[in-house]
Every structure is written in structure tokens, then in C-alpha cells.
Specification:
178 residues; mainly alpha; 6% strand; elongated
């Protein structure tokens, strides 16, 4: 498919480096570049200054449906979907760009980002594979990450209906969308 060209190779390396700088796991690099595992490992050590963390990627969809992670995931997914609509970016480039915009927006709210680039990447795959979906909140009209077959008629987002346990203290640590 892709011809082995110097240009393509440098594009792949640039993409891998950008992903490493965003904190992506090695599995993301393996999936999104044509570079060999050995090369990615070397690149990772050189760029991150340490060995990549071992272990499985988070495979569960549950995390994205818990209260605060859901708000972060929804914010990211809204940005990502907007970018893919208005630009011709390749998927992984749109994910990276959306992730940067997400972290900037979160920083402007004075909140720590809960979503890692690896989770953001997983989220896009989950939605592509219909394991999760985006549903419109029946109260505020915002689009939120939800179960794949959520009933939108009764769906209320985590901002409109925060869980009782959230309390005042936890709410102030969340994102407030005005
Ligand atoms: Zn809502």
C-alpha cells in the first residue's frame, strides 16, 4: 500500500514523536504508525526518557460512563467530531489535535485533565465500533458519551443530573460549562 519513501517515513516518525509527547502508550503508536516495534521502543525511550509502561490498555467502556470522566470524554469527543467534520485530517491527527484542544480548554477551567491521550484514542475506537455512542441530553441539548443504545428521550447528562454523592465539593472540582 504505502510506498516506502523517506517522506512517508519521516511523517511516521513525526507522528510517533507527537504521540509520545502527548503521553500515548506504546500500543497506540503500534496501531497508528507503520514503524516496527523495535524502532518505536527506541523512539519512545529517546523522546520520553524512560521505558514505556507495560500492561494492558484499558479495555472497558465503563470508565467513560462514570460521572466526571464522562464529562471530560464528552468534551473531547465533541471537539474531535467537530474537527473531522470541518477538516480533512487523518483520524489519528484529528485525535491528537482534539486532545490538545481538550487539554487547553480544561486548563482554562483550572481543572486537571482526566482523559489521557490513550483513553481518548480508545474512546474514538469504542464509538466507531458502536460500543459507545453520543446521545443528546434531553435537558440541556448537549452531546454526551453514553451507552451504545441509550434512549435519548429520557437521557440526562452528568451536568444536568450530577449523582447525589457528588456533593458541593466534588462539583466544584468538575468542569462547569456556562
Ligand atoms: Zn444536560
Amino acid at each position: 500500500m504505502a510506498t516506502k519513501s523517506v517522506l512517508n517515513d519521516s511523517k511516521q516518525v513525526a507522528r510517533a514523536v507527537a504521540l509520545i509527547n502527548l503521553g500515548a502508550r506504546l500500543q497506540v503508536l503500534e496501531s497508528e504508525t507503520d514503524l516496527s516495534y523495535e524502532r518505536l521502543l527506541r523512539l519512545y525511550k529517546e523522546v520520553a526518557g524512560r521505558s514505556p509502561s507495560k500492561g494492558q490498555l484499558p479495555f472497558s467502556t465503563e470508565w467513560f460512563l462514570t460521572w466526571q470522566p464522562n464529562i471530560h470524554a464528552s468534551l473531547f469527543q465533541n471537539i474531535y467530531q467537530y474537527l473531522t467534520k470541518v477538516s480533512a485530517l487523518e483520524d489519528i491527527d484529528a485525535i491528537m489535535k482534539a486532545y490538545k484542544l481538550y487539554t487547553e480548554q480544561i486548563a482554562a477551567c483550572g481543572v486537571e485533565p482526566l482523559l489521557s491521550i490513550t483513553r481518548a484514542w480508545r474512546l474514538v475506537k469504542f464509538i466507531d465500533n458502536s460500543m459507545l455512542s453520543m446521545t443528546t441530553c434531553s435537558k440541556c441539548g448537549g452531546h454526551f458519551v453514553s451507552e451504545a443504545y441509550e434512549n435519548s428521550r429520557n437521557f440526562e447528562c452528568g451536568l444536568c443530573s450530577p449523582p447525589a454523592r457528588a456533593g458541593k465539593g466534588a462539583a466544584s472540582g468538575g468542569i462547569l460549562l456556562h
